[in-house]
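Researcher: Sequence recovery benchmark, item below. Answer with residues only.
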């Protein structure tokens, strides 16, 4: 259904989900409700996320009106479901439950039939904690539908922490969930990556003449230009550090150990032993002297 500010609808939806929460204050009798007090500020976002829930999740929710679902990190939805509540870290117009960005969910264990989470986990400081929370609150046999970006520039608020390969996505959820589908959707294909990166890179070239020159190059010409060439360096010198970071192939770090206590050493359960030099290495050394 289209979103509505109708108070009766909010109360009706709240009553459906009341038992999914722990003890609530007596004066809480309708959505939206908040857990905690340190919420994100939507005015700090470049723009408020406003997309429809991806088809597989919307179909799952619509096909099971007697089951209860949560859309975690929903942003602004143009369509809401009576059996699905929208969870966010800021009070969006269509948010039902506002939580702090601690990765902990306010639901009882095994209280939901499913969770959807779309283009959110890259903005979470500890996505493995949130994945564990999904396993905690979803009933055995319940469903999760996850969308996690891979080759995307740095974007979003409060920050952008982790992208995931297909195998990374599998590994994050394989312990507690049986993976029934893992693929690249039509809205996640290489065409999005190439267009996004090229358009952003082009817009980041601050020298107008160089930007026009780059725009007029063919894809073949760009592909032949080797990294760190004089041409690339000329373009990069015109770009801000923020755009360099957003489009970077990688990042490096050097750090000094502080006084924060480390965890207990992990036992690997193996005993050290000497490794015999392989025969081919012994031959190589005799033949070439090193």
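Model:
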């Amino acid at each position: 259904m289209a979103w509505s500010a109708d108070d009766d609808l909010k109360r009706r939806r709240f009553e459906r989900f009341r038992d999914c929460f722990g003890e609530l204050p007596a004066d809480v009798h309708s959505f939206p409700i908040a857990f905690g007090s340190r919420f994100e500020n939507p005015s700090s976002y470049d723009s408020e996320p406003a997309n429809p829930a991806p088809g597989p999740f919307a179909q799952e929710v619509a096909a099971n009106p007697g089951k209860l679902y949560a859309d975690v990190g929903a942003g602004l939805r143009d369509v809401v479901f009576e059996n699905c509540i929208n969870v966010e870290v800021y009070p969006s117009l269509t948010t039902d439950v506002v939580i702090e960005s601690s990765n902990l969910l306010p639901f009882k264990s095994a209280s939901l039939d499913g969770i959807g989470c779309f283009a959110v986990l890259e903005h979470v400081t500890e996505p493995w904690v949130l994945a564990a929370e999904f396993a905690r609150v979803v009933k055995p046999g319940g469903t999760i539908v996850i969308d996690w970006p891979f080759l995307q520039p740095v974007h979003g608020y409060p920050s952008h922490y982790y992208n995931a390969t297909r195998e990374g996505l599998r590994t994050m959820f394989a312990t507690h969930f049986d993976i029934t589908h893992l693929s690249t959707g039509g809205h996640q294909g290489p065409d999005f990556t190439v267009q996004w990166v090229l358009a952003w890179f082009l817009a980041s070239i601050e020298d107008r003449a160089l930007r026009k020159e780059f725009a007029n190059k063919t894809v073949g010409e760009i592909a032949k230009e080797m990294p760190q060439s004089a041409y690339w360096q000329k373009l990069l010198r015109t770009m801000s550090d923020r755009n360099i970071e957003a489009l970077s192939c990688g990042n490096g770090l050097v750090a000094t150990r502080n006084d924060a206590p480390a965890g207990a050493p992990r036992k690997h359960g193996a005993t050290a032993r000497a490794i015999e030099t392989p025969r081919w290495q012994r031959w190589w050394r005799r033949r070439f002297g090193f």
